[in-house]
């Protein structure tokens, strides 16, 4: 309870900021809008998830693959892709914001500065309370679930069976934010065959959280959803920052002793322990065998969790710096409720900074969102850092292109990236390698609210936020979208 009170005391003053220094982006009108997106098929990831399900069913941990059945294709949805997990969690919280806006529009109609102020404060406070319940009590389909599903994406691509313990909310155990039921044999093979993928999987949990914040910001700017998500923005970012910096706590190593004590059985152990000491440890040691971690202190197998005392001075200093750079993720007006700013009559803009941990180090950059006479653009700048080198990249997205006019026109979103990243995707690489990504999405209206869409995304070798593949890949997604404006 004390933690909740302290958190609310920190967040509530910030909730008031956008309403006392309101961005001159619109009138005082709040028009509730709900934008939902559900990728029903994501291939080839769905096939990989089905294979993981088959391997789990057969108890395989030797790197071989079991024969799949039709049931495995259905059970594979237990481990959705990064894009599917991101969409589900965003949909859950967007629904909260939509109904919160409708409720407070009825209670306090925003007609002037004072009523707008009261409406937004009330909506953000209520939405924050509901978000907190969804995130920490429901857990399933919320940020904790999404965090673990991003972790599992890396193991799934390797056919490694895993379990997201938030699913215990449905019964069978105590729900927690953990990935368990992973064998040491699979972890040994994972490190041996794909050390960069292993490192990426350790950091990808908070990658999910920042992807959620980024997607919500784009909805608020491009779709004008006006979601009252200030509390969620701050809480989810603060949790990610705190998690990276957690290893500096004086009792950090003792917490790992406790974790190991209650993880006597291998199936009960989290596959990584605390994420970021393991991330920095394996980032710096791509050639070290996984079994060199040593024996588990309270049971059979390998000691997975990495204590701070096990880090070299260089590794420790690097993680301290990563924790400090994480604060840059707060640098976005949308974080505090400013959804857009006007420049003249026809142009709006917003921006956000990003510091994301990667398979080779980190990506430091940011987004500029533009709307000029209804033409919507997102411009992203990336700097990719490994141990010694800095590489650069650019990202451009065009929203809402239409081939014709009318309510039944097919709409297109196009996204392109070009980059230079470490040539072998490693922390110690001295040379860069050119690469890129192209995404095209077409949406066909099926009525006033529902549309169907198809999306193709191709990429070369390289790391991309919320894309699970480090190697070259072509993916196809098919799904439905809802746009409710009333």
Task: Describe the 3D structure.
- The protein is built from twelve helices and twelve strands.
- It is α+β, with helices and mostly antiparallel strands.
- It has one domain.
- The strands form two sheets. Strands 1-12-11-10-9-8-7-6-5-4 form a ten-stranded antiparallel sheet.
- A hairpin with a 4-residue loop joins β10 (432-445) and β11 (450-459).
- α4 packs across α5, α4 (82-107) runs parallel beside α8 (195-223) and α7 (184-193) packs across α8 (195-223).
- It is globular and about 65 Å long.
- It starts with a helix and ends with a strand.
Task: Decide which structural class fits the backbone.
Answer: alpha+beta
Radius of gyration: 22 Å
Mean pLDDT: 93
Q: Tell me the distance between the termini.
A: 37 Å
Number of domains: 1
Name the helicity range: 25-40%
Number of E strands: 12
Main sheet: strands, sense, barrel = 10 strands, antiparallel
Order of helices and strands: HEHHHHHEEHHHHHHEEEEEEEEE
Number of helices: 12
Beta content comes to 15-25%
Low-confidence stretches: 1-24
Please tell me what the overall shape is.
Answer: globular
Within the largest sheet, what's the order of strands?
A: 1-12-11-10-9-8-7-6-5-4
Oligomer: single chain
Keywords:
disordered N terminus, 40% helix, alpha+beta, ten-stranded antiparallel β-sheet, 486 residues, two-stranded antiparallel sheet, 12 helices
């Amino acid at each position: 309870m004390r933690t909740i009170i302290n958190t609310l005391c920190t967040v509530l003053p910030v909730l008031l900021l956008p309403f006392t220094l309101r961005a001159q982006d619109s009138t005082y009108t709040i028009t509730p809008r709900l934008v939902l997106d559900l990728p029903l098929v994501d291939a080839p990831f769905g096939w990989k998830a089905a294979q993981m399900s088959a391997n789990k069913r057969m108890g395989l941990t030797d790197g071989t693959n079991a024969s799949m059945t039709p049931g495995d294709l259905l059970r594979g949805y237990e481990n959705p892709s990064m894009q599917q997990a991101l969409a589900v969690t965003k949909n859950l919280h967007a629904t909260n914001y939509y109904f919160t806006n409708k409720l407070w529009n009825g209670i306090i109609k925003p007609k002037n500065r004072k009523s707008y102020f009261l409406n937004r404060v009330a909506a953000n406070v209520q939405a924050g309370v509901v978000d907190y319940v969804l995130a920490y009590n429901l857990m399933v389909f919320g940020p904790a679930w999404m965090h673990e599903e991003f972790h599992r994406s890396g193991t799934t691509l390797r056919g490694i069976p895993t379990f997201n313990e938030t699913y215990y909310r449905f019964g069978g155990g105590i729900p927690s934010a953990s990935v368990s039921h992973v064998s040491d044999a699979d972890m040994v093979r994972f490190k041996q065959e794909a050390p960069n993928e292993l490192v990426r999987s350790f950091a990808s949990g908070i990658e999910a959280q920042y992807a959620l914040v980024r997607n919500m910001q784009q909805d608020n700017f491009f779709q004008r959803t006006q979601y009252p998500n200030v509390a969620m923005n701050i809480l989810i970012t603060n949790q990610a920052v705190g998690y990276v910096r957690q290893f500096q706590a004086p009792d950090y190593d003792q917490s790992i002793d406790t974790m190991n004590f209650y993880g006597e059985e291998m199936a009960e152990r989290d596959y990584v322990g605390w994420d970021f000491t393991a991330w920095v440890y394996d980032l710096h040691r791509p050639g070290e065998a996984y079994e060199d971690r040593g024996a588990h202190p309270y049971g059979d197998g390998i000691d997975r969790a990495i204590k701070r005392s096990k880090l070299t001075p260089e590794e420790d200093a690097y993680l301290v710096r990563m924790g400090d750079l994480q604060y840059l993720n707060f640098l976005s007006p949308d974080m505090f409720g400013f959804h857009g700013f006007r420049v003249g009559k026809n142009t709006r803009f917003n921006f956000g900074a990003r510091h994301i941990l990667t398979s080779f180090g980190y990506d430091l950059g940011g987004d500029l969102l533009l709307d000029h006479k209804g033409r919507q653009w997102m411009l992203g700048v990336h700097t990719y850092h490994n141990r010694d080198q800095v590489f650069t990249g650019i990202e451009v997205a065009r929203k809402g292109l239409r081939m014709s006019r009318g309510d039944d026109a097919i709409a297109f979103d196009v996204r392109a990236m070009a980059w230079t990243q470490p040539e072998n995707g490693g922390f110690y690489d001295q040379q860069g390698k050119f690469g890129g990504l192209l995404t095209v999405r077409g949406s066909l209206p099926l009525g006033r609210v529902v549309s169907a869409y198809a999306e193709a995304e191709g990429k070369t070798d390289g790391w991309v936020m919320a894309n699970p593949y480090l190697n070259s890949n072509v993916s196809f997604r098919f799904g439905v979208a809802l746009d409710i404006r009333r």
